[in-house]
Amino acid sequence: MAISPFIRLKIRVGVLVLILATALAYAAEPPIRYESSVDAMGSTFSIAAWGSDRGNLAAAVETALEEARRLDRMLSNYRPESEWSAVNQSAADRGVTVSQELFDLLTACVRYSEQSEGTFDITVGPLMRVWGFYKGSGRMPHRSEVRAALARTGYKNLSLQTTTRTVRFEKAGLELDPGGIGKGYAVDRMASILRAGGVSGALINAGGSSMYGLRTPPDEPRGWKVVIRDPKRLERHVAELYLKDESMSTSGSYEKFFQVGKRIYSHIMDPRTGYPAPGMYSVSVLAPRGMDSEAWTKPTYIQGRQWAAKHLPTGFRAFLCEDRGEAQCAWLQ
Q1: Which residues contact 165 (CB under 8 A, 6 or more apart)?
Q2: Measured CA distances, 17 to 3, 23, 227, 251, 288 (Å)
Q3: I want to staple 139 with a disulfide (CB 3.0 to 4.6 A). Which of 94, 123, 132, 203 is the partner?
């Protein structure tokens, strides 16, 4: 028996209503939150992410955390088997061929050094050792030790050959330290993985020193709320802000330091003098990428407010807590 046009229309309408009702039911489901963390690069990397499918969400987050582990294995100067350590061990004797990824990262580091007038410098390894900040909390070296270590540093002694992807040290005793760039680079890679995995939004936190806010959480269109801690009273904060597709990195004298008399010597080294940089408690830099925000905290910390106002790249922001007897904290104008 033939179905009348009227019946066929009713069936079609019924199917459309069912599809629409199903779609609305799914749309009405609350977003899912997933959190996880891993220890890497001497810090805890944590991710708080939102999505609509728990399986896909968990897979994206765990893949991003595995990326932090992978980069730890590649960039660690504590692991003798890492690619970074292979460069430190052999580049003074011969050119060391490295992966394209590491070569690109080292090239970026040289660019940061040039832009910052040498105050960002990954060749500070000898200085970090002589000041006791390599696997330690610091010690007061003799001036002769500092002079000897300073003679074995300088990014201009790092030779990069593009055609062969080789790295060579032009001076014996040179040693690369990934501490000023590694976590920021890892945060960027993790954000790319989460974005490709269809995560609705996520906050990546690398030990509190580098963060990235991907898109927004479901209940806050301004982004992910984060705070900048008071460098003198860490239980308090001196600023709060929102990260939306933006990174923030912080360097502070409270992270690793030792005290002689009334003077505090922090791990933030001025590569030009060979001594820890004075005059600052902490610096936070906001930038589109984690690499940028982490790299630019050191020059801003070392060079200070006036220099940063002239040289910080367009679109970057900085919050400085200066040592003027007490901490004086304010945004860079």
Answers
A1: 97, 98, 99, 100, 103
A2: 20, 10, 47, 57, 44
A3: 132
Minimum mean pLDDT among 5-9, 66-70, 108-112: which range?
A: 5-9
Residue type at 323?
A: D
Q: Please state the pTM of the whole predicted model.
A: 0.90
DSSP state letters, 221-243? TT-EEEEEE-SS-TTSEEEEEEE
* Cα(233)–Cα(227) distance, integer angstroms: 13
Cα angle 146, 150, 154 (rounded to 5 degrees) comes to: 160
Query: Which among 228, 276, 285 has a CA at the least distance from the CA of 253?
Result: 276
Lowest mean pLDDT among 9-18, 145-154, 309-318: 9-18
Quote the longest CA-to-CA distance of the chain.
Answer: 104
Is 13's pLDDT higher than 50? no
Q: In the prediction, which pLDDT does 17 show?
A: 43
Q: Confirm if 244 and 282 have CB atoms less than 8 A apart.
A: no
User: Residue 283: beta bridge partners?
Assistant: 251, 320
Rounded distance between C-alpha atoms, residue 135 and residue 115, angstroms: 29
Residue 110 in contact with residue 289, Cβ under 8 Å? no
Name 204's Cβ contacts closer than 8 Å, sequence gap at least 6.
45, 46, 47, 64, 187, 190, 191, 194, 211, 212, 214
CA angle 144, 147, 152 (to 5 degrees): 130
For residue 14, which phi and psi values (nearest 5 degrees)? Answer: -60, -40
Angle between helices 182-196 and 54-75 (to 10 degrees): 150
